[in-house]
User: Fold this.
Amino acid sequence: MKIYDNLSELKNLKGSVVTIGNFDGLHIGHQSLIDKSNEVARKKNLTSVLLTFRNHPLNFIMNKDLKKLMTVQRKYEVSKYFGIDKFVSIDFTQEICNLDPINFVKKIIIEAFNGKEVVVGHDFRFGKARKGDIKLLREYSKKFNFNLHVIDPVIMDEKRISSTLIRELLDFGHVKKASKFLGRDYEIIGKVVHGKKLGRKLGYPTLNLEVDKEILIPKSGVYYTNAKINGKMYKSATNIGFNPTIEGDKFSIETFVLDFNEEIYGEEIYLYFKERLRDEKKFDSLEELKKQMDEDIRKVQKNLL
Assistant:
């Protein structure tokens, strides 16, 4: 599978199954759309195409600052795992924003992808001012001769799974529940950078991570995590926040990786969130902090969660 960043690159498709959306997080609900796209593509010998946007449309239209659940590159990698044939990621621009519903369908679904089948969620909106809805898209499917498949929402634990719900869970530190709805552990990718190296003095040298500013970081606190370094997985304990015991004034993400003592400055690691251990807390002394860290690490070692 190849990543495309221009609609014109796919004009020669003989026919496709198109699914459109932001697909942030590629959660279980999104996966149901992808599964349907692949199923239809196999049955009708068509190419499955996923169209998504590098920037969030709501950030563009409403000047919001919604954090992303994954980078575009990671979205591509996960989509590849789920079997999509063509991954198209474009900027949501003023030109796209200004397309009225019929021209959105004509220029994107028909002209760009030669869409023969379209797979969308039940709440899909399209066109200028989001005036296009499922009812209108069904009318256009007859006009432009494509089949429309509308996928019902996925309900789990009496909740409708959505990117918004997952963001809310992560904002409250509920990483285990968020991971359940994602269908995999929530992850961030960080580059290892130099920090204050206080952890070494306490016997717990940590990796200080620099993460894309657009990515959502879970609520401050201490977490049981897994760290993937050079393809190998390790247990780890991660602190997110300001290190109040040492009067830290800079937000940081630091992870202590069990059974690992290499220097890997400048390299990227994957951090997978398993469970939240506790709030970040200001201790009266470094000795008290170390005692609590001993307890945190013991829980991670023995999976006492």
